[in-house]
Automatic annotation (TrEMBL), chain A:
It comes from the Bacteria. This is ABC transporter ATP-binding protein. It comes from Phycicoccus avicenniae. PROSITE patterns: ABC_TRANSPORTER_1, ABC_TRANSPORTER_2. SMART domains: AAA. Gene3D superfamilies: P-loop containing nucleotide triphosphate hydrolases. GO terms for molecular function: ATP binding; ATP hydrolysis activity. Coiled coil: none annotated.
Automatic annotation (TrEMBL), chain B:
Residues 1-23 are annotated as: Disordered. The chain crosses the membrane at residues 48-67, 73-100, 121-148, 168-189, 196-221, 241-264. This is ABC transporter permease. Residues 1-19 have a biased composition (Low complexity). The keyword Transmembrane helix applies.
Length: 297, 269
């Protein structure tokens, strides 16, 4: 339902988004993961027609966002929860959106109920809102017209763990009804709890993408034993690569193969497990550290 | 805040809505106009600006009725007096209408709901004009009431006559300044800068044209405060209209074009 192809954005000599291509199919919650400044928001702004791309294209529901008649009715967008007039009440902000998209005003109460903002809270001015409440208000605005597609930039930012759990069921439910969700985050664990597909972006380029299972699983085995070297030697003769790390021996072989290698080597195993999500986490950590160095330099 | 909310998702299955219906892109202008009008008065800043300008107008009228000379206390004279505070307040209202999307960053929502920004700009100009008209009507009613009471208290003869050219001239003057405010707001997209620029630039122009010899010939065509003088006095004649036209083109038309271009091309972030 979202299709991004070769999307590129250059500011002078700086390439903020570099040849980004991915799809968000119907029924999917896709997490858009990357450190701050990686280009997530720029991609989302190009997707929603707020920033003109240098090259490439971004389609929502089969066409350019700006060519959608009354896009607010089809696509729920929240790009920055803080981008609300502080002097308006939450309800007033939603009323303006309802008047623009032409949806029935009764949807305001429905949307407020969906995100768990009470009538009292909705009657307060946005300047008194916590970040978590602003996020909920932004989500209410995105859900207001009962759209088919949601584009949410850092929606979990400022939510407590309970709130993240709540958002997960909300978005899951939305996708299960045939919607598509693209949400960004700079925190892996937020995306891990919510998304079923993941696109990782670093310095404007996609560095990994796939389903959550693909990225989390299939990253081999970790073994810690009384003699890692002996197991490594056995694995090498069996044709498996194995590298020693601080946590133990890391290999692409599956746990059963590693267990047999330990038995054959006659070494007592202290720990043996598949490497859950380690690959993704390491990749993400490396991206973040590289960027941190960049800033420090 | 409750976090144990309903799990209810979209009320209709989102995927069942079928293909996107064809239709001309864009939200109907009437709807945008309504939204922009509402935005002008739904914040404290907007509302207080209206209250304050009406209050200043009333105070000016009352003060004049109390201390002013008897012969000058005509309804037409009072209307002219009321125009002064409104000529300052309405442009600020216009500026705020144009800049709010950028200074408060609400453009992220507004331009996502209506990506055709030119339509939003048109709705903003129209909304400012409509609200300006409402303010003028209310101010006129307020002045009429004050004059009614005032002339009754003074026991003098009431002069209610307002030449058509004067009434229209005052309204047109306010319209010119109001739209100039919107145009300046669009150019700078920043409330304080736009307010300062709309006050300083014309004044600076007037000063320069007063100092430099030979410049007054140009000023007659370009100085907005000069060309609106006959308008506020209801004495517009042939060449005055041409002067008004050229000055408006420079002080309203040009910034309106530049400002609209900026809104259309500027990145919303």
């Amino acid at each position: 339902m979202i299709s991004i192809q070769n999307l590129t954005k250059r500011y002078g000599g700086v390439t903020a988004v570099d040849d980004v291509t991915f799809d968000v199919p119907r029924g999917s919650v896709t997490g858009f993961l990357g450190p701050n400044g990686a280009g997530k928001s720029t991609v989302m702004r190009m997707l929603t027609g707020l920033t003109p791309p240098t090259s490439g294209r971004a389609h929502v529901l089969g066409r350019d966002y700006r060519d959608l008649p009354n896009p607010g009715e089809r696509v729920g967008v929240m790009l920055d929860a803080s981008a609300q007039h502080p002097g308006r009440t939450g309800r007033e902000a939603l009323t303006l959106a309802a008047l623009t998209t032409g949806v029935d005003r009764s949807r305001i109460d429905t949307a407020l109920g969906l995100v768990g903002l009470t009538d009292d809270e909705a009657a307060r001015r946005v300047r008194t809102y916590s970040l978590g409440m602003r996020q909920r208000l932004g989500l209410a605005g995105a859900l207001l017209a009962d759209p088919q597609v949601l584009v949410l930039d850092e929606p979990a930012n400022g939510l407590d763990p309970q709130g993240i759990h709540w958002m997960r069921s909300l978005l899951r439910d939305f996708a299960d009804r045939g919607g598509a969700v693209l949400l960004s985050s700079h925190l892996l664990h937020e995306v891990q709890t919510v998304a079923d597909d993941i696109v990782v972006i670093g310095r404007g380029r996609i560095v990994a993408s796939g389903s959550m299972e693909e990225l989390v699983a299939g990253s081999g085995t970790l073994v810690r034993s009384e003699d890692d070297g002996a197991i490594a030697a056995r694995l090498h003769t069996a044709g498996h690569e194995a590298t020693r790390s601080e946590q133990g021996l890391v290999t692409a072989a599956d746990p059963a193969t590693v267990g047999r290698a330990a038995r054959d080597a006659g070494v007592a195993v202290l720990e043996l497990r598949p490497r859950d999500g380690q690959g993704l986490e390491e990749l993400f950590l490396r991206l973040t550290v590289e960027d941190a160095r960049e800033v420090a330099a | 805040m409750s976090t144990t909310t309903t799990t209810a998702g979209p009320t209709r299955p989102a995927g069942a809505a079928g293909p996107v219906p064809d239709g001309r892109p864009g939200v109907p202008l009437g709807r945008l106009l309504r939204v922009e009008l509402r935005k002008l008065v739904d914040t404290r800043a907007g509302r207080w600006l209206l209250y304050a300008s009406s209050a200043v107008a009333v105070v000016a009228v009352v003060a004049f009725l109390v201390w002013g000379s008897g012969e000058d206390a005509t309804f037409a004279g009072l209307l002219g007096l009321t125009t002064l505070p409104l000529a300052i307040a309405l442009p600020i209202l216009g500026i705020m209408a144009a800049t709010a999307e950028w200074s408060q960053r609400t453009g992220l929502v507004t331009f996502a709901l209506e990506p055709h920004r030119g339509r939003v700009v048109a709705a903003k100009v129209l909304a400012s004009v409509v609200l300006g008209a409402v303010v003028v009507v209310l101010a006129t009613a307020g002045v009429a009431l004050a004059y009614l009471v005032g002339s009754a208290l003074r026991d003098g003869p009431a002069d209610w006559s307002v030449p058509g050219s004067l009434g229209a001239g005052l309204a047109l003057t306010l319209l010119v300044y109001l739209v100039q405010g919107v145009a300046f707001g669009l150019v700078f997209l920043n409330t304080p800068v736009a307010i300062v620029a709309s006050l300083v630039l014309p004044t600076a122009f007037s000063i320069v044209s007063g100092l430099v010899t030979g410049f007054e010939r140009v000023a007659v065509w370009l100085d907005l405060s000069l060309v609106t003088e006959p308008l506020t006095e209801g004495t517009m004649a042939g060449s005055d209209w041409a002067h008004l036209g050229t000055a408006s083109l420079v002080w309203i038309g040009l910034p309106l074009v530049v400002g609209t271009w900026r809104v259309l091309t500027r990145e919303v972030a």
